[in-house]
């Protein structure tokens, strides 16, 4: 077995590459390095620099490395950017996936795992989001993930590819400081960035109908998420392989923004009170995913909690930026 990991030099992709190689799987990474860092990859993982939109390159990589399964993580992922540049997001996220699925079908590869997102749900008014909760994304990024899932399942049916769509909730933490998220698009690195500039963290609305008035989310450690990919890859290689699976990847537990800021204060020692600003349009009061289907289908559950997410992310921050 050789697994192609697209987006393998990215924050999550590099964690997946590490977990897969540590488990004895052969891996090749494809990344255009638009947001990735080749140094994140384990030494034994070859990196092909190029785009998932390049059909000829994809054919060559699949053949030269005798790829037997694909983990597709490469995508643009910034919600605000997707609102400003929707055609680019459809072209790169959906177009890149279409080119890849064509190459996969032509090569006769029968295993495909797709990085989806809780953004496919939009803002459902439910306590716990299950995979059967209707999808109604509220921005082009989420739309490209939902359209991507449709395309993955349709290609799976058309070409006999067994597929798994993993809907990640809020990803945080790092398995090692050098693998940390260096962007500032997710809440933990965003707060670190504010603190480093001597500014108080911001809370967007504290009058939501939640226990402490701030928004509640489901945070999952990136090391747990990487293990979910290994479990999905194993499932696709085992006796129960076949058909399509769509799974939430979260902890099934809600953590409020205030609770997260308290955890960050404990780790950084910077406990300055947050400034409360107006609600942001489109923010749901609560978005927590049921983790039961992933447990039942993959035998996978997240093991690491918020303190480990925050402290490992902080170690990464110190490594990349200093205190
Ligand atoms: N980080 C999160 O909280 C989160 C949550 C839900 C879903 N996701 C999804 O997980 C995946 C990985 O996210 P991440 O946080 O690691 O982001 P990231 O930006 O760190 O990684 C994405 C990688 O893909 C590469 N890439 C982008 N477009 C490419 C293309 N067309 N061809 C080849 N390489 C390309 C980038 O260079 C980067 O290395 C994405 O599909 C994202 O939508 C992330």
Structure in a nutshell:
With 323 residues, this protein is of the alpha/beta class. It has helices at 11-22, 55-64, 79-84, 86-106, 140-159, 187-196, 222-237, 257-268, 292-298, 306-321; strands at residues 2-6, 26-31, 47-49, 69-72, 111-117, 162-168, 170-172, 202-204, 216-217, 219-221, 244-249, 255-256, 275-277, 286-287. It binds nicotinamide-adenine-dinucleotide.
Description of the molecule:
This protein is of the alpha/beta class. The chain has helices at 11-22, 55-64, 79-84, 86-106, 140-159, 187-196, 222-237, 257-268, 292-298, 306-321, and strands at residues 2-6, 26-31, 47-49, 69-72, 111-117, 162-168, 170-172, 202-204, 216-217, 219-221, 244-249, 255-256, 275-277, 286-287. Strands 3-2-1-4-5-6-11 form a seven-stranded parallel beta sheet, sandwiched between helices. Strands 12-9-14 form a three-stranded mixed beta sheet. It has a two-stranded parallel sheet with strand order 7-10. Helix 1 links the parallel strand 1 and strand 2 (26-31). Helix 2 packs parallel to helix 4 (86-106). The longest helix has 21 residues, at 86-106. It is globular and about 55 Å long. The relative contact order is 0.14. The model has no long low-confidence stretch (mean pLDDT 97). The structure holds nicotinamide-adenine-dinucleotide. Nicotinamide-adenine-dinucleotide binds next to helix 1, strand 2, helix 4, strand 5 and strand 7.
Question: How are the SSEs ordered, and which strands pair?
Answer:
Layout: E1 2-6, H1 11-22, E2 26-31, E3 47-49, H2 55-64, E4 69-72, H3 79-84, H4 86-106, E5 111-117, H5 140-159, E6 162-168, E7 170-172, H6 187-196, E8 202-204, E9 216-217, E10 219-221, H7 222-237, E11 244-249, E12 255-256, H8 257-268, E13 275-277, E14 286-287, H9 292-298, H10 306-321
Helix pairs in contact: 1-7, 2-4, 4-5, 8-10
The structure holds nicotinamide-adenine-dinucleotide.
């Amino acid at each position: 077995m050789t697994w192609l990991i697209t987006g393998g030099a990215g924050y999550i992709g590099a964690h997946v590459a590490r977990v897969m190689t540590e488990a004895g799987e052969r891996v090749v990474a494809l990344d255009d390095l638009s947001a990735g860092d080749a140094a994140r990859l384990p030494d034994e993982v070859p990196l092909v620099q190029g785009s998932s939109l390049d059909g000829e390159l994809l054919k060559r990589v699949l053949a030269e490395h005798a790829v037997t399964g694909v983990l597709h993580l490469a995508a643009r992922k910034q919600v605000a950017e997707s609102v400003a540049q929707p055609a680019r997001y459809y072209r790169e996220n959906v177009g890149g996936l279409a080119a890849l699925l064509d190459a996969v079908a032509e090569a006769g590869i029968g295993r495909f795992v797709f990085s989806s997102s809780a953004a496919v749900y939009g803002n459902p008014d439910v306590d716990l989001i299950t995979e059967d909760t209707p999808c109604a994304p509220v921005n082009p990024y989420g739309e490209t993930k939902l359209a991507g899932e449709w395309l993955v399942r349709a290609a799976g049916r058309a070409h006999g590819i067994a597929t798994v769509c993993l809907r990640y909730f809020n990803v945080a933490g790092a398995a090692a400081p050098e693998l940390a998220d260096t962007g500032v698009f997710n809440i933990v690195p965003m707060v670190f960035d504010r603190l480093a500039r001597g500014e108080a963290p911001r809370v967007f609305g504290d009058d939501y109908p939640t226990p402490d008035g701030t928004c509640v989310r489901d945070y999952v450690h990136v090391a747990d998420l990487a293990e979910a990919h290994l479990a999905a890859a194993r499932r696709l290689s085992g006796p129960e392989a076949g058909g399509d699976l769509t799974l939430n990847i979260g902890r099934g537990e809600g953590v409020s923004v205030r609770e997260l800021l308290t955890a960050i204060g404990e780790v950084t020692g910077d406990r300055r009170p947050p400034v409360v600003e107006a609600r942001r349009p489109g923010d749901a009061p609560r978005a927590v995913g049921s983790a039961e289907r992933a447990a039942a289908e993959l035998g996978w559950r997240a093991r690491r909690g918020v303190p480990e997410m925050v402290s490992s992310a902080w170690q990464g921050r110190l490594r990349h930026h200093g205190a």
